[in-house]
Amino acid sequence: CCDADSSKQPRGLENPQVLATETVFSVSEIEALYELFKKISSAVIDDGLINKEEFQLALFKTNKKESLFADRVFDLFDTKHNGILDFEEFARALSVFHPNAPIDDKIQFSFQLYDLKQQGFIERQEVKQMVVATLAESGMNLSDDVIESIIDKTFEEADTKHDGKIDKEEWRNLVLRHPSLLKNMTLQYLKDITTTFPSFVFHSQVDDT
Amino acid sequence: QPTSMNAFKLISMSKGLNLENLFED
């Protein structure tokens, strides 16, 4: 029943060279990232796949919390739309968060993140939903008037076409004026992934370390 | 002043959007 070939790469890491070619990661970084993937994907069910519960557990260190954003990030990572993340989806998505990834990829990903209904634009109601969710999550209390005022000012600046929604072009202009809005799209950890998970060398198929 | 804050700046502070937690024990 079993594959006795021990030289075979683990599930999901059959071809690290291809993933390295198609992402910003080197082969060694792909292999180190696999160590992180193994850790997250074995937290609840050790099946070599990350389900939503495991993703949430890794993000919040608890599985009790409902989060609009964790769901949204998971759904964007899940490009095969089957409710689970395989290593390829995980690596391709995290590649966008690498400090060396193109800024346009980060702009595009963040736009998709905030375009909750995936209509090709961010509407006011979605911004309000996300602001309310963030405040609830952090235990901050702001009156509805204050929230409306924050959103008014944001739309005054971002919605340059004055149609009540923020399209991709307006989003791009906004984040280029305010680069701090993309701060969470860059993970410095990814630059040091091989030193964070040095054990990858024991399974490495390449000699580029 | 919270009203001078950009709504997206506030949103980007959400824990669910800060993926560095994936790397921490």
Can you tell me about this structure?
The complex is a heterodimer of chains A (209) and B (25). Chain A has helices spanning 16-22, 27-41, 52-60, 68-77, 87-95, 103-114, 124-138, 144-158, 168-177, 193-196; strands at 50-51, 84-85, 121-123, 165-167. In chain A, the strands form two sheets. Chain A has a two-stranded antiparallel sheet. In chain A, strands 3-4 form a two-stranded antiparallel sheet. The longest helix of chain A is centred in the first third of the chain and has 15 residues, at 27-41. Chain A is mainly alpha-helical and 209 residues long. Chain A contains ten helices and four strands, in the order ααβααβααβααβαα. With 25 residues, chain B is mostly helical. In chain B, 24% of the residues lie in helices and 0% in strands. Chain B is built from one helix and no strands. The termini of chain B are far apart. The relative contact order of chain B is 0.15. The mean pLDDT of chain B is 86.
